[in-house]
From TrEMBL, chains A, B:
<keyword id="KW-0460">Magnesium</keyword>
<keyword id="KW-0368">Histidine biosynthesis</keyword>
<dbReference type="GO" id="GO:0005737">
    <property type="term" value="C:cytoplasm"/>
</dbReference>
<feature type="binding site">
    <location>
        <position position="73"/>
    </location>
    <ligand>
        <name>Mg(2+)</name>
    </ligand>
</feature>
<feature type="domain" description="Phosphoribosyl-AMP cyclohydrolase">
    <location>
        <begin position="24"/>
        <end position="97"/>
    </location>
</feature>
<protein>
    <recommendedName>
        <fullName>Phosphoribosyl-AMP cyclohydrolase</fullName>
        <ecNumber>3.5.4.19</ecNumber>
    </recommendedName>
</protein>
<dbReference type="InterPro" id="IPR038019">
    <property type="entry name" value="PRib_AMP_CycHydrolase_sf"/>
</dbReference>
<feature type="binding site">
    <location>
        <position position="75"/>
    </location>
    <ligand>
        <name>Mg(2+)</name>
    </ligand>
</feature>
<keyword id="KW-0378">Hydrolase</keyword>
<dbReference type="InterPro" id="IPR026660">
    <property type="entry name" value="PRA-CH"/>
</dbReference>
<keyword id="KW-0862">Zinc</keyword>
<dbReference type="GO" id="GO:0000287">
    <property type="term" value="F:magnesium ion binding"/>
</dbReference>
<keyword id="KW-0479">Metal-binding</keyword>
<keyword id="KW-0963">Cytoplasm</keyword>
<dbReference type="GO" id="GO:0004636">
    <property type="term" value="F:phosphoribosyl-ATP diphosphatase activity"/>
</dbReference>
<comment type="function">
    <text>Catalyzes the hydrolysis of the adenine ring of phosphoribosyl-AMP.</text>
</comment>
<feature type="binding site">
    <location>
        <position position="88"/>
    </location>
    <ligand>
        <name>Zn(2+)</name>
    </ligand>
</feature>
Length: 120, 120
């Protein structure tokens, strides 16, 4: 179906299919969406690095996409995924590990300095 | 905590607290966030109407905000809510009622023409 991209991008809510936990928000362009649908693994557009990015290509924390849903205005996607390991680069399972006061709600699963090159 | 707004806005993923269903994606500015925290009911920034909007003010389908979470980069919010009635203006409980092929996954709960003035 026709999607409504803004400046070539569409936000993607990523939800763990097994637990229904919301893991992250990312952005896709039409190429990232095509790669996701062809491979079955989530690909996004990195706004900071300005390039396509396969989720987990460095950390191994891949996202297998079980289902793609579209919202009423066709301007947001919902990926329901199988998340290997942690979704968040901080080592937390979900990127939403804090409340609005900054209090941590969940523990880290890994130390980022051991997983990502040139970080930490 | 300090949030990272883009052009004054931050995306808000809205999830039903009881069921963990993802209901919608909306946008907030600092004023909408303040009104949400003060009132306990979700307020957003309407990009199409360029104004603050209290969710459900017309339809009665209010969202009581149980918890606000922040992601790792502090550039996305997650509202966990109690949703009265349907979240979607189409009458579906969630805005994500279709798959990427356009197939409807869930039934409508109401007829929009009976709920919204000047529509339908």
């Amino acid at each position: 179906m026709d999607l409504n991209y803004t400046h070539g991008l569409i936000p993607v809510i990523v939800q763990e299919a097994e637990t229904d936990e919301v893991l992250m928000l990312a952005w896709a362009n039409d190429e990232a969406l095509r790669l996701t649908r062809e491979s079955g693994f989530a690909h996004y557009w990195s706004r900071s690095r300005q390039k396509i990015w396969k989720k987990g290509e460095e950390s191994g924390n891949l996202q297998r996409v079980i289902e793609i849903r579209v919202d009423c205005d066709a301007d947001t996607l919902l990926y329901r995924v199988e998340q290997r390991g942690a979704a968040c680069h901080t080592g937390h399972h979900s990127c939403f590990y804090r409340d609005i006061e900054g209090r941590e709600l969940t523990a880290r699963l890994f130390d980022p300095s051991e997983v990502y090159a040139n970080k930490g």
